[in-house]
Amino acid sequence: MGSLEQNAPAGRGKGVETVAGTLREEVPVASNLVAAGGAMEHGNHHHDGVGVGGGVVNGLMKKRKMIPLPLEVGTRVLCRWRDGKLHPVKVIERRKLSTGPDDYQYYVHYNEFNRRLDEWVKLDQLELESVEADEGEKFEEKAGGLKMTRHQKRKIEETHAEEGHEEFDPASLREHEEFTKVKNISKIELGRYEIDTWYFSPFPPEYSDCNKLFFCEFCLSFVKRKEQLARHMRKCDLKHPPGDEIYRQGSLSMFEVDGKKNKIYGQNLCYLAKLFLDHKTLYYDVDLFLFYILCECDDRGCHMVGYFSKEKHSEEGYNLACILTLPPYQRKGYGKFLIAFSYELSKKEGKVGTPERPLSDLGLLSYRGYWTRILLDILKKHRGNVSIKELSDMTAIKTEDVITTLQALELIQYRKGQHVICAEPKLLEKHLKAAGKGGLDVDASKLIWTPYKEQGG
Ligand code: ACO
Ligand code: ZN
């Protein structure tokens, strides 16, 4: 899907690095959407007499007369995003400001972007002339219709289809979105980073009135105020996750934490992770899970980079439940490392595995990238025929995932009731080049681990 990222420079403030984890341009075509800029303003009026350049002295005053304020929840309108361009949004929620009786802020969803970019905006970011009272697709069609080609529209649709929503029925998806529609915590401080959050997380009610939470980077307990955290840090004697170190490679370490032995840690981790995971149920029953925490270690301690969770016993054959790389560490290969690690554990168990569904948009990209590279590497080196089953046995990747990956690469054909791999060396080379860099490798010889079952679990 090309490079979707528009990385924000990590600023510095109050001794913590600020990571605008939400600054991603999800859809490459988005910047062209209203490239005409004013085209929308000039060409798409629905309110007679609100013409720009039509002798309007005070545009806003005049607009306010025509469009009832405050805007209703559900209104569709164009909003100026941080890229300086106008994008179609839907108003999800509104709240009164203390600055005046008619002052409101609006929580908006950008139609073309993932929900992690939803945010509170001020009225002056909204292009009131574009207000569309009608619900539904009509407005997007119009906004898109201005500049979007059919190809661009399809890209947007595909992106949305890949967002991991497809396995929810419409009613439960609506219910999920209603309940989690507004982010409750907008920032967290963790170690030396301040991180913008992506999604709602069901913190206990006493935390519902705070915008920012402060986490102890070692035991993951969280508090509302910086002074409380400072007090905690003086007392907390952890310098790494509370579990066994099962892997060390240079400054990288992986710890295994048993949710049953470290319940509070497991719960805290789930609250934290949910801030960056959309469609994941929060498991209060952390007893049933093992958590694999990846850390970068230095003389101050082991700093969490990301993690994945794994059910102790999965009936569905999942080898990973949730995976997260914390935003300051994303796009550096840690995600692929975590994925590779989960398959190394499966190999030790003598099983094949697959990640729990649904996958998020970024989860899908990462898994597809991982599967592609691993399978292409084997096909390139392998002499003679190799079957899907053999590929699966070698990699611990479930056969269904092997098939979908090879199908997407058009390296597989269905002949006489059988899948046949057709791997031309030239084609393999081309795909391998396109698959990009491999990321951090897991050195299986450094893994010191006994599967849970054999630990007596
Ligand atoms: N834009 C475009 N492609 C991306 C992006 C992005 N923002 N982020 C990752 N990718 C793709 C790329 O193909 C990348 O490979 P490349 O850098 O070689 O091009 C590949 O994913 C993996 O990149 P990594 O650097 O190895 O992965 P990262 O450390 O960023 O972690 C992860 C990936 C874990 C999915 C991360 O994005 C994340 O934590 N997201 C939020 C939580 C989430 O969605 N988790 C998955 C849910 S599904 C589940 O849990 C089963
Ligand atoms: Zn602590």
Automatic annotation (TrEMBL):
Per the record, the domain of life is Eukaryota
Q: For this protein, what is the EC number?
A: 2.3.1.48
Q: Does the keyword Transferase apply?
A: yes
Q: Which reaction does it catalyse?
A: L-lysyl-[protein] + acetyl-CoA = N(6)-acetyl-L-lysyl-[protein] + CoA + H(+)
User: Where does the MYST-type HAT domain lie?
Assistant: 180-451
Principal location class: nucleus
Cellular localization per UniProt: Nucleus
Q: What is this protein called?
A: Histone acetyltransferase
Q: Which organism is it from?
A: Ceratodon purpureus
